[in-house]
Amino acid sequence: MRFIKIISVIVVLLVGAYALSMYYFVEDSKNFKIEKEIDFPVDKVFHQFNNLQNFTRWNNFFTNSQSIDIDYYTPYEGMGSAISYVDPKNDRDGEMFIRYENPNQTLRYQLFEDKNENPTLVDVKFKAVSAEKTKITWFVHTPKLSVLRRVENFWTEDRFAENIDKSMTNLKNVLGNKVEKDNQMAAIKYDSLMVENEEGKLLLGINVSTSNKKDALYKNIVMNYNKVYNYISMDLGKKEDEFGFPMLITDADNYKDKEVSYFMGIPLSKKIGITDNNFSFRSVSPTQNYIIYYKGSYAGRVKAIQQLIQKAKKDEMRFGDIYQVFIERPMEDQDVNMKLSLSVYK
Q: Which part of the chain is the Activator of Hsp90 ATPase homologue 1/2-like C-terminal domain (predicted)?
C-alpha cells in the first residue's frame, strides 16, 4: 500500500513538473513561415490553390491516404468554398474553408481538425518572381493547445514543412503535364517539318500486334487507347492533368507490313504499383527527333511519315522508332490530330 502511495506521489510530481514546464516554457500555439519557389506562372499556380478540387489532387495531406473520403461544397473555387473529409483508416476528419481571396496574390485557409473548435489559420501569399516562376509563402498560426498537449508544438512546424515538400513535388508534376499540354497545343504548326529535342518519358501502356488491313489498325488503336485510358483514369484514379498525351510507338516503316506491332502508352510522372499484367511500363530515352504535326485521316499519316524518313535519309541520319502522339484522343470514324516524331541519330 505504501509502495502504491509512493508511486502515486512520483507520478503526480512528474505530471506537475511536466505541466509547469509546458506552461512556462512552451507556447500554447505556434506561428511560423515557410517559403518555396516553383517554375510556373503565378496564374497557373494560384488556380491550383483556390480551387479545392485541384488542391486535394496534389496536396500531400489528402493524397497520402487511400481511404480518405472528401466532400466538396459550392462555390468550389475562391472565397466561400469548402470541403469536409473523413479518413477512417487513419482516424482523422475535419473541415477546410477558404475565408479570403485576392486573385493571384493571397489566400486564407481555415482548417478544423478532429472536432477541434479552434482552427489552424494558413495565409498563403503568391509573388511572381518572373513570367515563369512564382514564390509561395505560407504563414501558419496553429490553434491553442491545452497544457498537457503543448508538447505537440515541438514537431508541428517540421510536420507541416515535410507535408509542403511532398506537396510541391506533386504540384510540379501536375503543372508540368498541364503546362506541357497547353504549350504544345499553342505551338502547333501543321505540315511543317521541324527538329526537336525530346525529353525522356515514362509510359504506362499495352503491347499490341494486329492486322494492317484497311481500317482494322486504327480501330484496334482506338480500342487499346480506351483500355489504357480507362485503366489509368478509373482503376488508378488519375486526373487529366496528371498525365500526358497518349503515345503510340512503332517501327517507322511498318505501315507497309500486313501485321503491325506497337506500344500504346500514356505518360506518367513516376512508376506506381499495378496489378493488371496486361499493362506495363516503358521508358523512352531523351532523343533528337524530326517532327511534323498532322491532321486528317489516320491512313493519311503515311505521307507525313515518308517525309520524315526522306529527310533523315537526305541528312544521312539513321532513324529508329516513330512516335505518334495523339493531341486529341483517337476516336472511330474521326480524323486524327497528332504529332509524328522520328527519332534520329548519327
A: 39-175
Domain limits of the chain?
28-185, 194-345
- Residue range 77-99, pLDDT digits in tens: 889 999 999 888 877 888 999 99
More confident residue, 222 or 240: 222
Concatenated DSSP letters of 215-257? THHHHHHHHHHHHHHHIIIIIS---GGGS---EEEEETTGGGS
- Computed on alpha carbons and rounded to an integer, the radius of gyration of the chain in Å comes to 27
Q: Which amino acid type is present at position 3?
A: F
> What is the grid cell recorded at 17?
513538473
CA-nearest of 281, 284, 305, 282 to 293 is 305
Correct CATH for 28-185 of 3.10.20.30, 3.40.190.10, 1.20.1090.10, 3.30.530.20: 3.30.530.20
* 3-state secondary structure (DSSP) of residue 207: strand
Mean pLDDT value across the chain = 83
Domain 28-185 shares a fold with domain 194-345: no
pLDDT at residue 308 is higher than 70: yes
- Measuring CA to CA, which residue among 105, 154, 101 is closest to residue 128? 105
Q: 204 is written with which cell numbers? A: 504506362
Long-range contacts of 302-305 (CB under 8 A, 24+ apart): 302/255, 304/191, 304/340, 305/252, 305/253, 305/255, 305/340, 305/342
Read off the pTM.
Answer: 0.55
3-state DSSP call for residue 276? Answer: coil
CA distance 110 to 64: 20
How does pLDDT run across 47-69, given as a tens digit for each residue?
999 988 889 888 888 888 778 88
Helix (H) or strand (E) holding 261: strand 259-268
**237 backbone φψ class: left, alpha, beta (φ>0; ψ -120 to 50):** left
